Amino acid sequence: MRELLEFVVERGVDGGASFCEARYFEERANSVSVENGVARALSSGILRGIGVRVIVNGRWGFASTNLLSKEGAKRALRDAVSGAKSITAHVSEEAKVFEAKPSTDTVVHDVKMKPEDISPEEKVKRILEIERDARTFSDRVKDTLVTYRDVITRIIVCNSFRTLVEEVTPRTIISCRVIAKEGDNMQEGYESIGNVAGYELVEGVEPENFSIKAARKAVSLLGANAPPRGMFSVVVDSKVGGLFIHEAIGHNSEGDHVFSGQSIIADKIGQKIASEHVTIIDDPTRQGYGHFIYDHEGTRAKPHIIIKDGVLVGFLHSLESAAKLGGVPEGSARAQSHHHPPIVRMSNTFLAPGDMTAEEIFEDVDYGVYLSGSQYGYVECQKGQFTCKVEEAWLIEKGELTEHLRDVAVSGLTLEALKNISAVGRDLRIGMPGMCGKSGQGMYVDAGAPHFRIDGLVVGGRR
Amino acid sequence: MKSVDLTISAEKAVSILSKLDVDFYDVVASYSRSISISVYGRGIREASSRVDVGLGVRVFKNRSLGVAYTQSLEDDDVEAAVKRAVGYARVAQPDPYFKGMPGPSTAPEVQGLCDKKIIDLTLEEASLIPRSMIDACESVRRGGTYSGGFSAGHSKACLITSTGVHIDVEKTLVSAYIQPVYRDGSDVGSSYEFDYGISLSDIDPYWIGSRAAQKAVEQFGSKKVRGETLPLILLPESSGSIFSSLLSAASGEQAAKGRTFASKLLGKKIAPEDLEIVDDGTIPGAVASSTYDGEGVPRRPVRVVEGGTMLTFLHNSYSAGIMNVESTGHATRGGYGTYVGAGPSNIRVRPGEGTLDEMIHETGRGILVVNASFSPNMVSGEFSTTIDEGFLIENGERKHPVKNLMAGGHILDILRNIDLISKEGRLFGKGHFFPAVRIREVKLSGE
Predict the structure, then answer these.
(1) How many other CB atoms sit within 10 Å of the CB of residue B321?
(2) pTM recorded for the entire structure
(3) Of A99, A271, A397, B416, which has the highest C-beta tally within 10 A?
C-alpha cells in the first residue's frame, strides 16, 4: 500500500500539484448488541480506501475511492487534480499549507488483550453478564441495551513533504442504556466506557460503576422533577464540564473556524477571555478515546494549550490553518475516513485542575443547580452561543444538594460564561468517549474537567 | 464506474448463502458517486469527488442475526463477508420478536427519482451553484464570510433476499447550503439557508443565498429577554422538528417495544382536531420517496394523525411482527453497513386557514422562532432547547432578534397547545410539507 501511495504523490507532483497527499484508511469493526438478556445481533465490517488531496493553481482538490487498484488510485488523483482546476476561475483565497518537516514512522498501539484474539462466544458471555446486572437492578427497569464495539483503524499518510507515517489504533467502547418505567413515567439512564484499548477494557468493567450505575440513574430519575428556569449559578461535574469546554471554547479554537471567519475568538489571541481560574488544554498524547500519535496529515501530535490562566494563547491547527494564521501545526487534523479530507479536530480536551475541593465549590452556592452527566451539545461558533443537554441535575440550596431534576439543558454565551467561571476543583476526570460531528464528519474525541462553578448560565426549565 | 454491475456482486453472495444452512438472508450491494464544492471563508474552497462501493449481508439462523459488510465487491471480500455474517448468526441468540422477512411484491414505479443530468454533471458546472449563492449573499450585504457548499450524488443499489425479493434502485440527490456571517464591531449577524432535491431544477441557489443573507442581517442587534410564559410562532423550519420527532418516535421497534414517548399514543387524541399528518413515500420526484422500502415492501401513503388522533405507527416487517400488523413500508437502510430500521419518509402536515402575518398580528406578546430544534428526549418526551434564531413579538409586530433564550416543556403539551396552523408553509425536498404553527404558551428561560 505504501508504494501505491508514494506512486500517487510522485505522479501528483509531476502533474503540477504544489502539494499532494495520499492517505490510506482501513477500519475493521466488530460489535455485539445485548437487549433484555438476548445477544440479538453480532456485526462485523471492513471499510478501506484511499483519499487523495492536492493543491493545483492555488486551489484544493480532493477525491476518494475504495477501488484499491493502481487504476483506481490514478483515477482518484486525476479527479482531485481536475477538481482543483475546475474552481481555479472563481475568486477565492489561495490554498496553502505549512511547510512541514518530513516524518517517517510506524506506530502500533499495544493492548493487553487483542479483541481479535477473543472469541465472539466469550464476548457475548461477558456482555450478557454486564447487562444482567442492569436488568435485575430493580423491577422498575423495563428495558436494557448493552452494545460493545471494537475497532482497529489503520492509517497511512504519504505527502509531498516526503512524510510517510503509519498508525494502527485499536479502540474499544461499551455502552449501557436502561429505561425505567413507573406508570406513564419513563426515564433513561446511560453510561459508556471507551478508550484506545483492547478487550481488557471490557474485562475491567465494574458493573457498580457501569451497568448498575445506568440502571440506578434511570430508576432515580423517575422521582426527579422538572428544573426551575432562569439564570443560575451552576456547578458542573466532569462530564458536563467536559461538554461545556468542548462546545463553548473547543470548537471556537479550531484553526479552520478561525481563518474562515466563523470563530468568535478569531481576533482575541493574547487577550484575557476567561477568568484567571481557566486553563484549557487539548492533548492527543494523553490516554483517552481521542488519543493518537500522528494526525491524519502526518504531523506528530503535541499537547495544545488553548487558554492559560484566562488568556487565549493558541488555536488548534492543520497544515492549512497554521499557514494561514502564522501558527505551527501540532497534530490537530483528522478525517473520518478516506472519503473525507482532514479538518481541524479536538482530541482529549479538558479544563486543567484548580486547587479547591468539590465541597468548597458547593459551599459558596446559596441557590443554584448542580449539573451531572452529559447527553450532547452544540455551538454556533460565529455567535458564540452554546447549548449543553444534561442527564440529571440537583438544586443546590445553601451549599447542599436537595431536589433531584431531570431533562435539563443549559445555554450560554461563550465569552460571558468563560469569565463567569469562579471556582475550579482539583478532581480532574477525563472519561466521556464519543464521536464529535463537524462538517459532515464524525471523529473519536474525549473530554473532561474537574468540578467547577459558573456564576450565571440560563437553565432551560419547565416550571 | 457506470459499468459496475451490482446484481452480479449481490448474486455472488446469494449463491454462497443458498448453499449454507441458514433460515433467512438478504444482500444489498450499492454504488455511489458524488461531487461537491465547498465554500469556506471568503469563497469557494475545495472541489471533491467520491466513489464508493460496498456490500452488506444479513443472515438469520434460528432467529439469530449476524451482519457483515465490506467496502469491496471483489470475490474474496464478498465471500469473507458472507462467512463472517453466517458465523456471527450462529453465535447470536434467538430474537423472540423476529418472524421472518417479507416476500416479493409489485408496485407501480414512483417516477422522477433519478435525473440523468446529475450523473453527467461536471465539477465546473457544479461550481457555478455555490458561486451563485455567494453572489446572492453579496448582493444583500458585502464583506461576509461563508461556510457551506453544494453536492450532487448518484447512487444505485441492488437488494436480493432469500424470500424472493429482487429490486434495483437508482436515485440522484442534490443539496445546497450556505451560512453567511457578517460582523459590525462586536455585533454578529448570522443565519443559514438550504434546499435539496432530486434535480438541479429543484433548487434555486440565488434564492438560498439571498434569503440566508437577509436572515443574517436581521440578526444584528439581538437582545436578551426575560424568561416568561409566552406564545411561540414556529416557522416551518422549526415546526418540522416537532412533527419529525413525533413520527420518528412512532416508528419501528422503538415505538412497538414501548421505548418512546409515542408508544402509548395509538388511538389517542394528541392534538387539536385540525391537525392531520400523512406520511407518503410515493410522491413523484420527492427526495424521501421510493417505490419500495428498505426491505422491498411497496411504499404507500399512511395517515398517521387525523382529527388530532394518532392512527398508526410506521412499521418495518420486524416492528409490524411485534404488533401483529402488516408492515407499512417504512423500513430504512442507511447503506450497506447498517441495520434495517424504520422511520418516516415524506411528512406532510395539512395547512390551516390563516396566514403567517395574521398569526403574528394576533399575538400580543410572543416569540417568532426562525430556527430551533424541538426534538425531545425520545424516551420521556421532555425537551429543553435554545431558540437559536428568533424575534420578540410585541403588540402584533415583529421586534428585535433575541439571544440566549431557551424553551422547555413536553412535546405532547406542545402538540396539544397548537392553536393556529398557517395556510402557507414550506415544501422541503419536494416531499415534506410543514406550515407555520402557533403554540398557545411555552415556558421560556432567559435573563
Answers:
(1) 18
(2) 0.93
(3) B416
Q: Please name the residues in contact with A376: beta carbons below 8 A apart, sequence gap of 6 or more.
A: A243, A389
Grid cell, residue B143, equals 464583506
What pairing do the DSSP bridges indicate for beta strands B193-197 and B24-41? unpaired
Query: For B380-405, what is each residue's pLDDT tens digit?
Result: 999 989 999 999 999 999 999 999 89
Nearest to A341 among B46, B337, B339 (CB): B46
A181 CA: distance to closest CA in chain B (Å): 10
CB atoms B404 and A40 under 8 Å: no
Contact A161, A300 (CB under 8 A): no
Helix segments in B222-335, DSSP class H: 236-249, 252-256, 317-322
* Closest residue in chain A to residue B65, using alpha carbons only: A41
* pLDDT tens, position by position, A75-102: 999 999 999 999 988 877 899 999 999 9
| pLDDT score for A12 | 97
Helix (H, G, I), strand (E, B) or coil at B295: coil
Residue B3 has pLDDT above 70, yes or no: no
Mutate to test the interface with B, among A68, A150, A229 (most CBs of B within 10 A): A229
- Chain B residue numbers with beta carbons less than 8 Å from the beta carbon of A387 are 385-386, 406
Residue A261 has its nearest CB partner, among B64, B145, B403, at B145
Centre a 10 Å sphere on the Cβ of residue A19 and count the other Cβ atoms it contains. Answer: 21
Copy the grid coordinates of residue A97. Answer: 499549507
pLDDT of residue A91: 73
Grid cell digits, residue B418: 397548537
Cβ proximity of B247 and B305 under 8 Å: no
The HSE-up count of residue A403 (CA atoms within 13 Å, CB side) is 12
CB contact under 8 A, A230 and B37: no
Closest chain B residue by Cα to residue A225: B382
Output the pLDDT for position B438: 97
C-alpha cell at A12: 501528483
Q: Which residues of chain B does A60 touch, with a Cβ-Cβ cutoff of 8 Å?
A: 45-47
Q: Which residue has the cell 423472540?
A: B96
Is residue A344 scored above 90 in pLDDT?
yes
Round to whole Å and give the CA distance between B36 and A84: 12
Contact B444, B359 (CB under 8 A): no
Task: Tell me which H or E stretch contains B369.
Answer: strand B365-371
How does DSSP classify residue A247? I
A413/B403 CB distance under 8 A: yes
pLDDT, tens digit, 9 for 90 and up, residues A426-451 = 999 999 999 999 999 999 999 999 99
The strand pair at A104-108 and A164-182 is best described as parallel
Residues on chain B touching A373 (C-beta within 8 angstroms) = none
> How many angstroms separate the CA atoms of B110 and B346, rounded?
13
Among B61, B60, B82, CA closest to B73? B82
Q: In this predicted structure, what is the pLDDT of residue B1?
A: 42
The residue of chain A nearest to residue B340, with distances taken between CA atoms, is A41
Q: Which residues make beta-bridge pairs with A348?
A: A446
Are the beta carbons of A451 and A425 closer than 8 angstroms? yes
Given a contact cutoff of 8 angstroms between Cβ atoms, the answer to whether B101 and B24 are in contact is yes
Whole-number average pLDDT of chain B: 95
C-alpha cell at A450: 474537574
CATH code at B6-217: 3.30.2290.10
A to B CB pairs, distance under 8 Å: 257
Give the C-alpha separation, A83 to A350, whole Å: 39
DSSP structural state of residue A209: G
Indicate the domain borders of chain B: 6-217, 223-447
Residues A48-71: tens digit of each pLDDT? 999 999 999 999 999 999 989 999
- Domains of chain A, earliest start first: 2-221 (3.30.2290.10), 230-459 (no CATH)
CB-nearest partner of A460 from B179, B264, B406: B406
- Inform me whether the pLDDT recorded for A339 exceeds 60: yes
